[in-house]
Amino acid sequence: DNDGRTPFSYAAQQGQTVVAEFLLETGKIDPDIQDNDGRTPFSYAAQQGRTVVAEYLLKSGKIDPDIKDNYGQTPIFYAAQRGHTAVVEFLLKIEFLFKSGKIDPESKDNHGRTPFSYAAWYGQTEVVEFLFKSGKINPELKDNTGQTPFSYAAWGGQTEVVEFLLKSEKIDAASRDNHQSTPLTIAAQFGHKEIIELLLQTGKVDLEAKDNDGETSIFCAAFAGHTEVV
């Protein structure tokens, strides 16, 4: 169609396993064909949490489950963003279950961000916990702006994720990005009071820490009009 997508792509997205199987068995389609955004049918199946279709495609051995799209994102990115823990778990196990290649759970997109970073930002706590406990990722990997997944959780106001990561004691609660902003500064800027309280309770953050503009967390909160935070 105008988006460069095929019937097979839509069948995978909608979880139509019988249709997908029929089309694949004809031998007349490219199961890894990429649309205008560089996305594959498997990418859409992962995004929608279509575990049955995903399992069928992986078992077929006819797809590459780690193809990057135009944004540098692989299927596991989309599963993580949407909170499809079962798909994420499945993907990390495929090298043992099928002959479909390996998945890089620390793959970085064009912004230098990982699936874990997006899961933290969107508050997908179950995915965050699974990836963290899998031991296959570095939860402190920074993106092109120097921000960690924890910073994004603070930015997104994801209290459950922030609380989980703080309890792990493996996170630098005062990490600085390229602008020298900290998770506390970011949380203050967006008025996330509960996260600010959690950060202060750690005793590991500095209220007076300044970014490259010389602004503290209190300044950021005041400037943004978050009276309840100030």
Automatic annotation (TrEMBL):
Keyword Repeat: yes
PANTHER family: ANKYRIN REPEAT PROTEIN, GH09064P
One family name in Pfam for this protein: Ank_4
InterPro entries in the record: Ankyrin_rpt, Ankyrin_rpt-contain_sf
Protein name (Swiss-Prot/TrEMBL): Ankyrin
Organism encoding this protein: Sphaerobolus stellatus (strain SS14)
ANK repeat locations: 3-27, 37-61, 71-93, 111-135, 179-203
Keyword terms, alphabetized: ANK repeat, Repeat
